[in-house]
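Moderator note: this is an archived Q&A kept for reference. The question asked for a predicted structure of one protein chain; the sequence and the answer are reproduced below.
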Amino acid sequence: MGIIGEHMTRHHRHCDDVFDRAEDRASAADWPGVEHEGGAFLNAMERHIDIEEDLLFPAFEKATGMTRGPTQVMRSEHEELRKLFAQMRTAIESRDCAQYQAVAQALLDLLRLHNSKEEGMLYPMLDQVLHAEASTLLTRLEAATA
């Protein structure tokens, strides 16, 4: 995997780690902890999606001329994720453990599938197509995910 894929995959793992911490807090009914870690997870995921949709996907589409295909599929899945993010925020705000657990499970299921598509297919394509721009893009990626 090239540097774009490596960076974005590392960011997936970071988001996974924060999600796990939020889950641990929810299991302990530590709502201040859930608010902190859950909020951090949601912010990290939204930043991750914004990076893909605002930086990486447009660069890929410009380089390939493809606007329908892998980036369209990922954008559609991002919309589904955003709906679940809103539901998670509601569960956190209302301190509804059952709702939080249900949404967290749905998120986990969708993220596993989504991330495997990105890491197995899309990120290698980005690395191949955007190889010449990789250093410049990486600088922007690092700044956006810091």
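Archived answer notes: The chain has one domain: 3-145.
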